[in-house]
Amino acid sequence: MSIIALYLLFAYFNTRIDSIDGLNYSLRFASLVKDKGYVAILENPIKPYLGEMLLGLTWRFFGFRAMHLMLGLWAVLSALLAYKLFTKVFPTNTELRRRGLLLFVLSSPVLALALHEFKTDLLLVTLVLGSFLLLFELFVNAKTFHLPLIALLCGLSILVKTSSTPAALLITLVAFLQVAKAEKLRSALPRILSGVILFFSPIFIWGTFFGITVPSFEEEIRVPSVLSKNPRHLYLTRDPKILAACIEERDTKDYGSFIFGARSPLVLIQPYFYLTRTNAHSFSEQGLQNLGPFLYVGLVLLMAAPLIFGWRKLQPIHKALYIVSLGTLACFYYFVSAIYWYIIFLFPLSSAIVVYLISTLKNHRLKEVLVNLLYAGLALNVFLALKTTLLVSHPMAEITQTALEGTMASGVYLHNKKLERLAQNGLILNASEHKDLIPVTFMTDNDAKVLKSNYYFASASKPPDEMYQELRDLGIKYITVDKYSLYSQWYQGCPKENNKILLAFLEKYTIPVFFHSDTGSPNIFELKD
C-alpha cells in the first residue's frame, strides 16, 4: 500500500506535457472539455474518446493535478485487476502470479503509460480486465447475472479506444453464448437483451450527444454533436479513393517505423528483430514501441494455445479467452501489426502463458536462464522508463507560458497563441500531416476555429485556383504547416504528392506571417486577398 501511495503522490505532481500523442490528441480534447464541457470539431466530430472526457471533467472541477492523479489511478487499477486475473489463472501458484504480474506491469509500454505518456490506454485496460474477471465468474461460478455488466464494460471500452472493438464484441459474444448454454433460452433471453442494450447504449448516447466518427471512415460516418453551440459544420471536397490511398500509404510507412515487417508475416518473429534492433528505435527510446521478446512470444503463443495444450484439455473459460485473443490478434495483425499498445489489454494473457510454459520446462538450466533473462529485461525497462521520466517530467500546477519553458510544448504554446489572435479574422486550415503534425492544444476554442486538411491538397482533384476559392468560401484565412517539414524524405507516394502541391500553393496564394522560434521555418501563412 505504501508503494501505491507514493506512486499516486508522484502521479499527482508529475506533469506529462512532453507527450507527442498527448499534445496532439488527449490533452487537446481534455482541455476543450475543461473549457466548455464538450468537443465539436468543425468538420468531423470527435472520435469516441471517453477517457479524454473524464480527464477534462476532472481538470474542470478538481484541477490540473487532479487530472494527472486520474492517470495514476488508472495505472493502479490496471495493476490490481491484472493481479486479480493472475489469481484466477494461477489459483495455487504464488510464484507464477508474481512473475506474470511483473512481466505485465514492468513491460515498457505499461511503464511509459504509467509514468510519462498522456494517454488513456490504461483506462481501456481497466475496463477489459474487469470484463475478463467477470467472464471467469460467469464461466467458472455460473454467475449469469454478470452478463449485463460485461456488456456495459465492453461498450464503454469502445468509447475509450475503437481499436478494442474486436475484443469487446468477442467478449460479449462468448458471454452471451455461455448464458444461453447455462440457462434455457426463455430464461436467458432477458439477460441477453439487457446485455445488448447495455452494450450499445453508451455508444448510441455518446454519438447522439457528442458526435461520433469511425477511424478511417470519417468521410462516410460522421454524426455531428447536438451539444455544440456552433452548429456550423464545414466539409472540404475530397476524392474518397485518393484520400484512402494517402491514408493507406501513411499508415504503411508509419507502422513500418515502429516495427520491422509491419503488415506482413514477419511480425510473427518480432522477438528476433527486437533483439537485433532491425529497423527499430534504440533501447533508450523504446517507450511504447517495444514489448520485449517475452511478450512478443506470448502473443504468438496465445494464438497457438490449442496446439500447445490441446483443445479438449482447455477449460471453458480458457477456450473463451482463446477465442477473444485469437480474434483480436487476427484483426490487429491484419489491419495494424505494429502499434502493440492498441492491444495492451492482452498483455496479461501473454504474460500468463509465457511464465507458465517456462515453469513447465524440464531442463532446469534452461528454465533458470530464461527466468534470469526475463528479470534482466524488466530491470532494463524500469531503468529506461525512469530515465525518460526524469528527462521529460516538468511539474506544474497549471499550463502557462512560464511553466512551459524548457519543455517541447513551449514553442507550441507561442504558436497556438498567435493562431488564437489570428482566428479573430478567420478560420485556420491545419495542413500539417503525420509525422509532423502541429498541435493546436493551447489555442482556445480550437475545435471551432481550426479545420484539418487531411490530405486535402492531394485528394481535392481540382486546380489550385479552385482550391483557393473553396478555402476562401469556407471562411479560411490562414494555413498552418511547418514549411521545412514538407521537404522531409519520410513522406512517400500520395503524402509526398500532397506536400508538393501544398508547397506550390503556399508560394502562389499565401504570405508567411509567423516562423518557428528555433528553426526559423515559416509555419503560419495568410491567404492573399
Automatic annotation (TrEMBL):
Transmembrane residue ranges: 62-86, 98-116, 122-140, 147-180, 192-212, 294-311, 320-336, 342-361, 373-392
Keywords: Membrane, Transmembrane, Transmembrane helix
Highest taxon of the lineage: Bacteria
Keyword Lipid metabolism annotated: no
Protein name per UniProt: Glycosyltransferase RgtA/B/C/D-like domain-containing protein
Organism: candidate division WWE3 bacterium GW2011_GWC2_44_9
